Amino acid sequence: MDYFRMITDKRLCRLPRLQIPKELLKAEMTKPSIVYVEGNHGLSIDYADYLEKPFPLIAEKFQRILQKYQPDMALRRVTLIEKETGQQKPYYLMMPPKITCADKEGSRYDAVGKVQDFVLDVKKAGNRKIFLAEDYGSELLVRLDVAESILRRKADGIWFEPVKTAERSREDVR
Q1: pLDDT tier, 36 (very low <50, low <70, confident <90, very high otherwise)
Q2: What's the rounded Cα separation, in Å, for the pair 118 and 124?
Q3: What global pTM score does this model have?
Q4: Dihedral of CA 51/52/55/58: which sign?
């Protein structure tokens, strides 16, 4: 099965600068949260359908799709509000599980032990379709079917980079 790293389009240069409230950083947040967006000196802000920094936020229109593919993944509603204009944008904070999933033999590490060349061990991902690769800088990884479903709905500002996967052993093929 193919997996992809889901990232925000790097060509967007006017992404929202968020002012993160403390309650949003708590995983047990139960009510919708408001996040203020700093002004962009009169320039319009590029709201991508996926914002990866400082934590994964997905546009409201993709919330149901992600729930369909990973029903046990927690999603919390977050409203982004521009300070200057008052414009509101609904998003969902994604809280997928963190999985240690690097293939120890295929991945390359630096002297400190940080992954330099990541190779996914698909067995460690199990049946997860959306997860954070803990040993790959907590990057958000999605399975091919999730990526295709998002792309069919004309996602703005979302890119998918293929992730290397460990080749199956001969025992798995039999």
Answers
A1: confident
A2: 14
A3: 0.82
A4: positive
